[in-house]
User: What shape does this take?
Amino acid sequence: MSNYIVGLDFGTHQSKVCIEDSSNRLQLTYEFFEFPGAPKGAQSTLFPSVVQINRDNTVSYGFVKPSNAMVVSKDGSNPPKKEEVREPEYQEIPAEPRYENLPPQPEPRHKGYFAILEKLLPESAEMKKWKQECATIERTNENKRMAWLNRKRDVINHNEQAKEEWQRQVKAAERRYDKAYAEWREDIQRSIQMRFRYFKQATFFDRSIWTNDFISPETASIWYLAYIRFLLDKKLGKGYIVRMGVPCSYEDIDKFRQRAYNLWMSAGKLVEHYHDLAAFEKADYKELLQYGKYEHFTIDPTQPFDVRTEAQASLFAVISNRRLDTRINFLFDIGGGTTDIAVFHITSDNDLKILEAISVPKGLNYIFEAYQKDHPNKTIEQIQTQFATTVETQKNGGQFADYIETYLEDIDRAAETLSKAIMNTLLTDPWLKRGAILQALANDPSVFSGGGSTSACMRNVTIQLQGVSGIKGDLVPVFTDRRVVNKKLLGIRNVVNAAIDPVTYQILAASYGLSLSDNWYEVPSENITNTFKADPNIPPIPKTNIQERNDEAIK
Assistant: This one.
């Protein structure tokens, strides 16, 4: 039998791994796997659920460098082309017309010494005729010249106007191109970088969030899990058992077990093909597409792989060292894609009784996506950063308050449904009265774990049940003792990691619960009435006849 059980909390935003080492049966040790590649050369127990295809066609995982990402168009479109605005054909400036020459002047009547007489004698008829002909020709020539000048002016004006209009159209086309190019570039930067997130959520229960057709979410999950397998093989060899958390209620676990098994075995085929982590990291993504296909496998019970619901994982992490009171407890594990809710009862003799464990398909992403619909200019990554900063500084959630409230309303309804089921079951026993039950449940704990519960505003779950009066609106708050999972509450003995931030235990809890030996998962679900009545901390409270009649009416 293997000495190592690996609890793999495959998360929407980040994954966590806890390793139980039973080499020494008398002293189990637990180690939270520290992933390489964190900023400044550090290692981290929180491994981002990110897969990125790089410009050199290799693939990176977890702590990626965004500047190395391959950038392609979602639909294969090229950048917009500049609109061609042809320069107009200008009118030709007309040539100056040919003018008619003047006729030769008539010969003088007198020559030599007597030529002076020409100025004293009356003008001859021939000279008069010549002058008239010259005047007519000059007028004609002047008319031609004026007509040519007017035409030349009109053509020049027309050409200048045509050129100005062309220049205006060119500038308008340039503005349109600049705008189209900017929009194209923004789209490329926003959504077409080959960096993939939320593949776990899309693979298991919400395919609608996956908008990239380049690879499937199953493919991204297989590559990511193969990388984790390489790291585990390097640390532990081949002899370890893996237990993965899946986001479902217990009734659906067989369906989700099959999908998780398909992913893990498909990742195993990639590991077998490349053998070496360095070769895997250098592989061309086109090769990975060929060898890392999602396949269906028949589940082999001898394989060292199994699943638990994420609600179970969080539950057993919390109760494994019996640090909670002997009460009925609600557990809320708020993750990126789901909120897992478990209801359990720790009896006076420190036995655990599981009442219900469900998974609600809403988590932090539900808040981020709702916020993005109203702020489409922001990316999910920007919203995540803004959210983390806001909830740290503003207790009510600041600009996220309305979105958090909507999320909590859904969680309240799910929790109240479970609470009503508990109440209705208890009321079937004639010895238990509503007033006594309400008084017992009023201060029972609501325990919070998961990355989404690190902010106080995310823990404002309100569970109310109908009061003893039976009057509509008479609601009594129950499970009001809010607690947060931390290092002390978990009480993990013999942790190898010495420098984990105590707050981080809130996020690591599920991976720890998954790594626990099998006997923790054999706790039976018991009849809630018997467990409730058997606990001396919750005695029935005597009532008046009026109260009893009200209770009977409500039943």
Remarks:
- The chain has three domains: 1-71+195-321+491-513, 72-88+132-192, 325-486+525-555.
- Residues 32 and 340 are 22 Å apart (CA to CA).
- Residues 125-191 form the longest helix (67 residues).
